[in-house]
Automatic annotation (TrEMBL), chain B:
Subcellular location as annotated: Cell membrane
GO molecular function: branched-chain amino acid transmembrane transporter activity
Predominant location: membrane
Protein name per Swiss-Prot or TrEMBL: Branched-chain amino acid ABC transporter permease
Record InterPro entries: ABC_transp_permease (IPR001851), LivM-like (IPR043428)
Lineage: Bacteria, Pseudomonadati, Pseudomonadota, Alphaproteobacteria, Rhodobacterales
Pfam family, one: BPD_transp_2
């Protein structure tokens, strides 16, 4: 019995808790991608760099607040800086739309053209971020490090294994729940949200019923800025901020959005967790978990690790391929093939 | 070629000659050589995008596979490593391939239903576990053989030029697998799938030390051209250099680079001619018809997915060939140097700026954008130097701005791409 509990704690400590946090971050990222796809009808290659930009803006605000001696006590100061980061990112995205995307929207170009345009935007944003903050790792988490540290947990429960929950992981999950709830409330209940869904379902009908397309697009960009910045800041708090890592997040985020079904918000969230759990699960060495569970003498000698952690991209990719082959619309009926 | 197009090529030539005059001929030849390789990559992408409208963002992966081919083909085999675990590793690979094949066969042959899904999953999971069991000891044994110098299987010891077509073949094989899964779906799905495969190829190169030493890099790849040192020691070469009034050291470096340039130019011209013939053939017209109206082409009885697969494999093979040439030029395989912005998206900038659908445009774009990529950094340094000149020395902002100059190239490339897309969406040399 105790062995089973110990195994469960090890599993929770190394797989479940990190995967839940990572999944929430991916889900927020995928929500942004899926919103752009649903409303603006293209795949945004610049999303990873949008996240990086938003995080950078938040980091600078955090530093400013820290210099001014303002903090949130046990919580990271970055949470206080988040609204500023979102506002700056929203301005950037609205400016990008005004200068770049609007021209192509008016011409009704093919979605793949917009995809290429977003590659250009990606270059510029990437360059901007690297130019302003540099290419190095930045850590900006402050406040209390743990909600429960491994040692407290051990003394509390008397188990051999400890379960540590970092503050950043807790914040990630709580923030993600709040953001998702707010987003769904907005999309389902408000007039603007309804007009966005109408626009996404059928553009012509929406125009006929008097919905202002430019307003819908503007609100979409603001929402995307908020989602991307929050996802980026949560990821940065949990791990660290490095422009190149954010660029690489593009792959798991796209995988999450497609697995869930491009254009479907619920799907994006489910997809995020599917990808996160598979990535963490497949690359985790189950030696210790099995050591507790299996009878004496049968303990595994190897690490029982399916793939090295460097292959985590392979996991998102494999899931993506499986979904593309067997269910191209994703789990939640997104855009069809 | 119109007068305008000839003028554009003359401009690129002038830029490179200008570099030679201002910064020295070694720099100019470096730009020229990598420009030729870039032009070849752009040709490959142009086959896929310009001819067929396929959006491949995995160029980096195919280029890296070409680089891997150079190691596998041209490095001398490490006998000890082969003895330690070569046979077992090969057996593992064959078994892995057999597993995948068996799974696909099961999927095709068995009737629909739960039994089929279970059988396929069982084959894949069981096969993977056995594959791991076979592979792990072999990998351990191979990597234990003198890890500081070898620790890998080595290659086949063949002439390095053989590696170039092999690089194309490797890339073509990978492209076939990708194409089989992702073609026929939405354009964006192909983009994501190729993005994924390229990251995986790099991950394999970085981690499978038994294959190509991973991040320890393979150095000292054989060269198709003589060594500079050998030239400097050859009395005949020194005499000839003296006859031209050149320092033998400088002459040898120039000679080697020029030799590479000639080799690359020959390959580029061959591929360009082939691409041009393909473009003008009935096949090329069919591809463009499919690109412009899939429904109509389908109604005419054209097998769209098969044709897409064909051109996707061809284009990727050209990228692999270019990748092998690039690794040969570098003389080493460094997996950590493969960055998607540099090896995938920059190639895209080249194709779009040059003019998608026009092979000459791709070549022009490749050379021109490569020139910019190299020269923007010193230009940015100079520009920021001018901007920061009035600032006091040692100020934080000045140092920061000067450090950031290296990032100017990304910004510039993005701006170039956006400006071309906006004001000249068909590129410098529009398709005809």
């Amino acid at each position: 019995m105790i062995d089973a509990l110990n195994a469960l704690v090890v599993l929770a400590n190394f797989v479940i808790v990190p995967a839940v946090a990572y999944g929430a971050q991916l889900a927020l990222g995928a929500l942004g991608v899926t919103l752009i796809f649903a409303i603006l009808r293209f795949t945004n290659m610049a999303h990873g760099d949008t996240m990086a930009f938003g995080t950078m803006a938040t980091i600078f605000t955090t530093w400013g607040l820290q210099n001014a001696g303002i903090s949130l006590g046990p919580l990271p100061t970055a949470l206080l800086a988040l609204p500023v980061g979102i506002a700056v990112t929203a301005l950037l995205l609205l400016g990008t739309d005004r200068l770049i995307y609007r021209f192509y929207r008016a011409k009704k170009v093919a979605p793949v053209m917009l995809l290429i345009v977003s590659v250009g935007v990606m270059f510029v944003m990437n360059g901007l971020v690297r130019f302003i903050i540099g290419v190095d790792d930045q850590r900006f988490a402050d406040g209390e490090r743990f909600i429960i540290s491994a040692r407290t947990f051990k003394t509390m429960t008397g188990l051999d294994e400890g379960l540590a929950i970092r503050t950043t992981q807790g914040i990630t999950v709580v923030t993600a729940i709040i953001v998702v709830a707010a987003l769904f409330w907005f999309l389902e209940r408000t007039r603007t949200g309804k007009s966005m869904r109408a626009y996404s379902d059928n553009e012509d009908l929406a125009l006929l019923s008097g919905i202002n397309p430019e307003r819908v697009v503007m609100i979409t960009w603001v929402l995307v800025a908020a989602l991307a910045t929050i996802a980026g800041v949560l990821y940065g708090l949990d791990k660290s901020f490095k422009p190149f890592t954010y660029f690489q997040l593009l792959l798991p985020i796209f995988a999450a959005a497609i697995v869930g079904g491009l254009g479907s918000p619920v799907g994006a969230i489910i997809g995020g967790f599917v990808i996160a759990f598979s990535e963490v699960g497949v690359t985790y060495a189950f030696k210790r978990v099995l050591g507790y569970l299996l009878p004496e003498g049968l303990e595994p000698t190897g690490l029982v690790q399916l793939l090295g952690t460097d292959y985590k991209f392979a996991v998102s990719f494999a899931i993506l391929v499986v979904v593309l082959i067997f269910k191209p619309t994703g789990l939640y009926k997104g855009a069809s093939a | 070629m119109t007068r305008r197009e000839a003028g554009l090529f003359a401009l690129v030539a002038l830029l490179i000659v200008g570099t030679g005059v201002v910064q020295g001929w070694n720099s100019a030849l470096l730009i020229l050589n990598m420009g030729l390789v870039s032009a070849l990559m752009a040709l490959g992408v142009n086959l896929q995008w310009g001819l067929a409208g396929l959006f491949n963002v995995g160029v980096m992966g195919f280029v890296a596979l070409g680089g891997l081919a150079v190691v596998i083909v041209s490095m001398p085999p490490v006998g000890e490593a082969w003895a330690a675990g070569g046979g077992r590793a090969l057996a593992g690979l064959v078994f892995g391939a057999a597993t995948v094949f068996a799974a696909i066969t099961a999927w095709r042959r068995m009737p629909r239903g739960r039994a089929r899904a279970l059988a396929m999953t069982g084959i894949l999971v069981g096969g993977f576990l056995i594959y791991r069991a076979v592979m792990a000891p072999a990998v351990g044994a191979i990597e234990a053989v003198n890890p500081a110098v070898t620790g890998y299987l080595g290659g086949m010891g063949l002439p390095v030029l053989v590696a170039w077509p092999v690089g194309g073949l490797l890339a073509a094989g990978a492209a076939w697998v990708i194409g089989k899964t992702a073609l026929g779906l939405r354009a964006d799905y192909l983009a994501i799938a190729t993005l994924g495969i390229s990251e995986i190829v790099i991950a394999v190169l970085k981690n499978e030390d038994w294959l190509s030493r991973g991040v320890k890099n393979v150095n000292g790849l054989p060269r198709p051209v003589p060594n500079e040192i050998d030239l400097q020691e050859s009395a005949e070469f020194v005499a000839r250099a003296d006859g031209l009034g050149l320092d033998p050291v400088l002459a040898s470096t120039l000679y080697v680079k020029a030799a590479y340039g000639v080799l690359f130019a020959v390959v580029l011209i061959i591929v360009l001619v082939l691409a041009q013939l393909a473009l003008r053939s009935p096949w090329g017209r069919m591809m463009r018809a499919i690109r412009d109206n899939e429904v109509a082409a389908n109604a005419m009885g054209k097998n769209i997915t098969a044709r897409h697969l064909q051109v996707f494999v061809l284009g990727s093979a050209v990228c692999g060939l270019a990748g092998a040439m690039m690794t040969t030029l570098d003389g080493q395989l460094t997996p950590s140097s493969y960055q998607p912005l540099r090896y995938t998206f920059l190639i895209w900038v080249m194709v779009i700026v040059g003019g998608s659908g026009n092979n000459f445009g791709a070549v022009l774009g490749g050379m021109l954008i490569w020139f910019l990529w190299v020269q923007v950094e010193p230009m940015g340094q100079w520009l920021l130097g001018v901007i920061t000149a009035p600032m006091p020395d040692g100020s934080w902002l000045k140092g920061h701005l000067l450090d950031g100059a290296a990032q100017m190239r990304l910004l510039t490339m993005g701006l170039v791409l956006l400006l071309v897309l906006r004001f000249s969406p068909r590129g410098l040399m529009p398709e005809r």
